[in-house]
Specification:
By secondary structure, the protein is of the alpha/beta class. 50% of the residues lie in helices and 10% in strands. It is built from 19 helices and nine strands. α2 packs across α3, α4 runs antiparallel to α8 and α5 crosses α7. About 10% of the residues have low confidence.
Length: 442
């Protein structure tokens, strides 16, 4: 167990101290206990490191709003422990952390397993709306429906104790940290970079996963050089819990046979790996699921020459790209996609103008946070009677962190200074949007 400052993560070790380190990363809403059934076997030949996400499993509630932030906290934790190189297996959000590590810190990752993972999880709008629901209703609606997303119906019915454990695990998570993790998943998109993952990779997915299923897994396998796919039958999203034996066998086989040697900058060569290899029984799960043979390891490779970086452009950067990013984060991908798709020769210049100046220049300024900018924007739209825009920005205000109570206060304030008739219309529009955005879906 660990003392946990704000820039590190709560963790625990299992297994012999001298063994290579294998990290197990959890899914959103779970704790390190989701790996309990894998640890006894894995800890026979690895030093197994498990961590909790912020605010999960009693970990200190220091929200992390990006996958990069989570990866940085994990590395800070490992640096403090003197762990430089490791194998990594992660489920869902934990898998996103693994991809981030493999892309930004490839020298640290010896081997990678991505479980129920994707280069992009759903849409940003879905996760931001989930954050709105949690901010308004707490975590209970999400907790009650978690078994439907995580397990097959037959497993949930046959294992009521595990189903209740899953509900309580989500229910006891810190809401602010859960919302921040939703924001992290909303912003995560490595589709353009996935081909740069160089670690030996196993992509593992449950055949019945309706969250990040076989289609997403095949996208990863198609993008990552020499990645292998394992489909576990009769399992949904939380496959390490639902099919623990199959997952354990697949992880042992992968990490025993695909552990990339470390690069030695002094010699320009890779070192022979010091990872034990254990003979595995030929179980039905293994024979059905590993679809390609392990790739041979290179023992001595000359490191490629560093790629020269192009010179940085001089002058003030164009705010369009930054503005499009902010516009999508505030209004949602669906709204922005519709607006851009409807643009033609007549309106296209206006859409570019709005993106560049309204969103890149003004919304992108650091002087006010987005909550404050939403308050100002709602008031201005009430004053101008722009009810269609008010609907868009009420939805944006919820996703920027305002609660329905705070939006009500903004509209009451506007009633005094903008007029009661204008506020009356604004309340009608905002009430409908809030009802749509904050009602949990069963």
């Amino acid at each position: 167990m660990s003392e946990t400052p704000s820039n590190t993560l709560q963790y625990r070790f299992d297994g012999p101290e001298e063994a290579p380190v294998l990290i197990l990363g959890p899914s959103l809403g779970t704790t390190w206990h989701m790996w309990d059934r894998q640890v006894p076997e894995l800890a026979q030949q690895w030093r197994v490191f498990r961590f909790d996400l912020p605010g999960h499993g009693g970990a200190p509630a220091y929200p992390a709003g990006s996958v990069a932030d989570l990866a940085a906290r994990l590395l800070a934790t490992l640096d403090g422990l003197g762990v430089q190189r490791f194998g990594y297996a992660g489920c869902a959000l934990g898998g996103a952390v693994g991809v981030e590590l493999a892309l930004r810190h490839p020298e640290r990752v010896a081997s990678l397993a991505l479980i129920a993972a994707s280069p992009r999880f759903g849409t940003a709008d879905e996760f931001r709306q989930r954050g709105v629901i949690v901010r308004t209703n707490g975590l209970d609606p999400i907790a009650r429906t978690s078994p439907d997303r995580w397990f097959t119906g037959g497993f949930a019915a046959a294992q009521p104790a595990i189903t209740e454990w899953a509900v309580q695990m989500v229910r006891t998570t810190d809401p602010g940290c859960y919302i921040a993790a939703c924001e992290a998943l909303a912003a995560f998109d490595v589709r353009a970079e996935i081909g740069l993952v160089g670690a030996p990779t196993l992509v593992l997915v449950g055949s019945d996963d309706q969250v990040t299923g076989p289609a997403e897994a095949r996208t990863l396998v198609a993008g990552i050089p020499d990645a292998r796919l394992a489909v576990v039958p009769g399992a949904s999203h939380l496959v390490p819990v639902e099919q623990p034996t199959a997952v354990t066998d697949l992880l042992v086989r992968h990490f025993s046979t695909a552990w990339q040697p470390a690069y030695d900058s002094a010699t320009g060569q890779t070192a022979v790996p010091g990872i034990p290899v254990r003979a595995l029984p030929n179980t039905p799960q293994q024979s059905q699921q590993v679809q390609q043979p392990p790739q041979p390891l290179a023992i001595a490779e000359i490191a490629p020459a560093p790629v020269a970086q192009p010179p940085q452009a001089m002058g003030r950067p164009d705010p369009y790209d930054a503005g499009l990013k902010v516009r999508r984060e505030v209004l949602g991908d669906a709204h922005v996609d519709r607006a851009l798709a409807q643009a033609d020769d007549f309106s296209g210049d206006f859409q570019e103008f709005v993106t560049r100046y309204a969103w890149g220049e003004i919304w992108g300024r650091p002087g006010l946070d987005r909550r404050s900018r939403s308050c100002v924007t709602l008031t201005a739209l009430v004053a101008g009677g722009h009810l269609e825009e008010l609907a868009f920005h009420t939805r944006a205000a919820l996703r920027n962190g305002l609660t329905p109570e705070e939006i009500k206060e903004v509209l009451l304030q506007a009633a005094v200074y903008c007029g009661v008739p204008a506020a009356n219309s604004a309340f009608r529009v905002a009430q409908q949007v809030i009802r749509e955005e904050t009602t949990p879906t069963e």
